[in-house]
Design goal:
single chain, mainly alpha, about 0% strand, about 240 residues
């Protein structure tokens, strides 16, 4: 009797990748121009674009929820490739989702400042620094989790290994840029180290949606497989 592999988990995973890519990119594009300059400049920028900033905050919160869904689906698909590694990666991306939500608290404070609901020049600087540092820690959790997830993707072969390798090569560059910012917020290298990774989630998401996930390889190594066969034959 032939069995047909359920393609739905791979499609769901692809949709989650695309959703998270679209919401995070759109949120970044909406807010990037407003969050540059001094705290006073930022508050003025937001005052002129309050609706746009609020939309960006909502998209960030949707991204946070999307990360939780994406991490859960990755765990469901890849946990048999290495349960301990998958659990650590799941925890790191859950922490990423929390820090992204925390980041929006600073942005909410900046919106209140821009509307005159909060008074005090120093508050704007504190709120902006809070949001920026939360974003840096958020990215640190993301990078560490991504290295584990994409390593499991490479091992599982549910997507072409070249595609998983793309993620494994691109993420360390993002990690380097993030680590420099966490160490010293003045060490901003711009988008150069992020450029290779930016389209990755869209590409892998579309691949999974259109082509679907291949049947994963066994999480056992060759030696483990031989021992398993030997035990089976001896029983």
């Amino acid at each position: 009797m032939s069995t047909q592999r359920d393609a739905r988990p791979g499609r769901y995973l692809g949709a989650a990748f695309v959703f998270q890519f679209v919401t995070s990119l759109t949120a970044g594009l909406l807010s990037a121009g407003m969050l540059t300059g001094s705290p006073v400049d930022v508050v003025r920028n937001i005052a002129s674009n309050v609706g746009q900033m609020r939309a960006s905050i909502v998209l960030m919160l949707l991204t946070s929820a999307g990360i939780i869904v994406l991490a859960s689906l990755l765990y469901a698909v890849l946990s048999d490739q290495g349960t301990a590694v998958a659990r650590i990666a799941l925890g790191l991306w859950m922490a990423e989702a929390v820090m992204l939500a925390v980041k929006t608290l600073g942005l909410y404070a900046l919106v209140d400042l821009s509307l005159g609901a909060v008074d005090g020049g120093a508050v704007g600087g504190i709120a902006l620094d809070f949001s920026r540092h939360a974003a840096q820690i958020d990215m640190l959790f993301f990078c560490l989790g991504a290295l584990l997830w994409y390593g499991l993707l490479f091992r599982s072969r549910i997507v072409p290994r070249l595609l998983a390798l793309w993620g494994l090569v691109a993420v360390p560059l993002v990690l380097l840029a993030t680590a420099l910012l966490v160490w010293d917020s003045d060490r901003d290298l711009g988008m150069a180290l992020y450029a290779l990774y930016i389209p990755f989630e869209l590409v892998i998401g579309v691949w999974l949606l259109v082509v679907g996930a291949s049947a994963p390889t066994s999480g056992l190594g060759a030696g483990d497989e031989n021992r398993t066969r030997a035990i089976s034959l001896g029983s």
